Amino acid sequence: MCGIIGYIGKKKAIPVIIDGLETLEYRGYDSSGIAYYNKKKELKIIKEQGKIAILKNILNLNEESNLGIGHTRWATHGQPSRINSHPHNVGNITLVHNGIIENYEELKKHPLVKNYKFISKTDTEVACAIINSLYNENQDILKSLEESQKLLMGSYALAIIVNNDFEHLYVMKKDSPLIIGVGNKENYVASDVPAILKYTKKYILLNEGDIGIVSNKNIKVYNQKKLVKKKILEFEWDLEAGMKNGYEHFMLKEIFEQPKVIEQTIKEYINDYDFINLPDLTKYNRIDIVACGSAYHTGLIAKYWFEEYCNMEINVDIASEYRYKKNFLDKKCLLIVISQSGETADTLASLRLVKEKKIDTLAIVNVVGSSIAREAKNVLYIKAGPEIAVATTKAYSAQALLLSILAFKTSVDKKIINIKEKEQIINDYHNLSLYIQDILSNTKICESIAKKIFKANDIFFLGRKIDYAIVMEGSLKLKEISYIHSEAYPSGELKHGSIALINKKTPVISVITDENIALKTISNIKETKARGAYSIVLSSLNMDNNKECYDDLIKIEHIHSLVEPILPIIYLQLISYYIAKLNKRDIDKPKNLAKSVTVE
Ligand code: F6R
Q1: Greater confidence, 367 or 254?
Q2: Which residues, including other chains, have CB under 8 Å from residue 47's CB and lie 6 or more apart?
Q3: Which atom from ligand 1 is nearest to the alpha carbon of 597?
Q4: Which of 495, 430, 456, 467 is nearest to 575 (CA)?
Q5: What architecture is domain 442-600?
Q6: If DSSP codes are grouped into helix, strand and coil, which group holds residue 86?
Q7: pLDDT value, residue 208
Q8: pLDDT (tens digit, 9 = 90+) per residue, 453-512?
Q9: Architecture of 240-439 per CATH?
Q10: Domain ranges of the chain
Q11: Residue 454 Cα, ligand 1 centroid: separation in angstroms?
Q12: CB count, 10 Å around CB of 400?
């Protein structure tokens, strides 16, 4: 949830660290800090509550320094404040931490730290104190870190500076992402590759339990007391992909990247008229799909596709529920986990739980080499490229698309979809990015709707079946970036209570793509109109005979129902974006949110 960066080498460390922190700001931004050795070999720790810009203002970016660590925080233990910000220092140890030390209260009573007086409310300071005591006893940092692994429960990615050691950075990882960037006579440490892309594309992925010793010329990684050989990987995206490219916000840029992302995903899994790189799912009787937030919403869409086109039982669950629920899995079940970051704590925990039972697992992930990607039995990448805006857009569409292709292939394998229909669907996939480009070439309709409704206190979303799954994402998108209260309802459910909230001019946004139940949704919309609602309808169907059910109509291209559901969300993303913009919200970094939720 937090962002970590470290640098050792010939450059001035402070600007490198600030650059990295700015790239990582999406991971958390309620406070930030930096620790470095200056020219006189004095250790400086500077931290501040608030965004990185505040920290940057109080730093001297020109100050000579060749070794430092930095942190941008998303508070878990202890409110955002300077004292609770990282780096934390206890005695000889200064460190930054991402993750949660679950047994920190218990550890405060450990004999190793019994005489230490804690000054912050964080779990991190406890880890720092424990490592410091071990180091004071051992006078050997590697041994101390190894011993600390037995004491620290929970998750951690740590970057550490040791007093009077001007030649090394130390890192340690468990259940939180951490990489070492490989440079020329300089090296980096970061939670995420984009943080160091400006300087190097080469990196080493750290595994669970790894401890790294990083100097400017050398990287040594130990695991369970043994030196391990690490592969140097190369990041396939360039920095430009992680920058705004002239767009006002990353979110808008990422919305506009969707045609390209869709093309890339299709190219990866469909070759002309054949499937490639995809597993056979026909051997499973049942699939559990588990994810959080928007990724969960793509699972809900997939449920309809698999049930409709593959005759398979699908259970979709929110990961934070699934991991604590009784499950009835057997060897004929498959678990699919969906995660953009590949680091979401609850999704990862659900995956591990199911893996332990020796049930097959398949991960749908964006970030290559992320924990979920590495731990699942099989992994399929969505090829969306780095997503920086906290609110997901392109990763959501790519996840939905990949699930659609998987359901399609399974249906073909089961001989439910025939050759003729198969060709039509593949044509629709190949044209999908053009349809999306079409939507993006005329954003006026979304802007004008946003202008009409941006002052609303509540905005409701309605749909049935797959359309309900789509509007759930529309509603989440809206509330997370505009801070307007919003709820999505299966349209038939509204009158069982919540219709009481519909007042004159309350915006109600409905999606109607499913022909079979369109008339039912239309009746429900009319019920809200009768109570004064302002109705916006997105539909691929002919609405000429139902003009009285909408104030604004957005026409969606009518294509095969395995592909069409990817279209309405593009409009909903744009409407949310413009509403948030009119309300002057911090669109790329909405309050209280972080991009990668690596804590429970
Ligand atoms: C909403 C959003 C979140 C994520 C959720 C899961 O716009 O981005 O709801 O979808 O936190 O994240 P990943 O996909 O990284 O597991």
Answers
A1: 254
A2: 31, 32, 33, 34, 55, 71, 82, 85, 86, 87
A3: 11
A4: 456
A5: 3-Layer(aba) Sandwich (3.40)
A6: coil
A7: 93
A8: 999 999 999 999 999 999 999 999 999 999 999 999 999 998 898 899 999 999 999 999
A9: 3-Layer(aba) Sandwich (3.40)
A10: 3-235, 240-439, 442-600
A11: 24
A12: 30
- Specify the ligand 1 atom closest to the Cα of 341: 15
The rounded distance, in Å, linking the Cα atoms of 173 and 242 is: 25
- Is the pLDDT at 27 greater than 80? The verdict is no
Hey, which of 294, 338, 483 would you mutate to test ligand 1's pocket, going by the most ligand atoms within 8 Å of its Cβ? Answer: 294
**From ligand 1's centre to the CA of 212, what distance in Å?**
30
State the average pLDDT for the chain. 95
C-alpha 597 to ligand 1 mean position (Å): 8
Best mutation site among 191, 341, 390 for ligand 1, i.e. most ligand atoms within 8 A of its Cβ? 341
pTM: 0.81
C-alpha span between 323 and 268 (Å, rounded): 31
The residue nearest atom 7 of ligand 1, judged by CA position, is 391
Intrachain domains 240-439 and 442-600 with the same fold: yes
Question: Ligand 1, from 251, 318, 340: best to mutate by most atoms within 8 Å of Cβ?
Answer: 340
Ligand 1 centre distance from Cα of residue 595 (Å): 7
pLDDT in tens, 105-123: 999 999 999 999 999 999 9
Banded pLDDT at 240 (limits 50, 70, 90): low
Pair 464, 522: CB distance under 8 Å: no
Q: Residues 479, 576: contact at Cβ < 8 Å?
A: no
Could you list the active site residues?
2, 595
Res 241: pLDDT = 61
CA atoms within 13 A on the CB side of 562: 28
CATH code, 3-235: 3.60.20.10
Q: Tokens 């060749």 appear where?
A: 66
Contacts of 115 (CB under 8 A, 6+ apart): none
How far is the C-alpha of 29 from the C-alpha of 8, rounded, in Å? 24
pLDDT tens profile 163-207: 999 999 999 999 888 999 999 999 999 998 889 999 999 999 999
Residue 227: strand pairing partners: 222
6 bridge partner residues: 69, 189
Tokens encoding 432: 């999908």
Residue type, 148: S
| Cα distance between residue 272 and residue 383, in whole Å | 18
User: Which residues are near ligand 1 (CB < 6 Å)?
Assistant: 292-295, 339-341, 344, 347, 391-392, 476, 480, 596-597
The pLDDT of residue 51 is 87
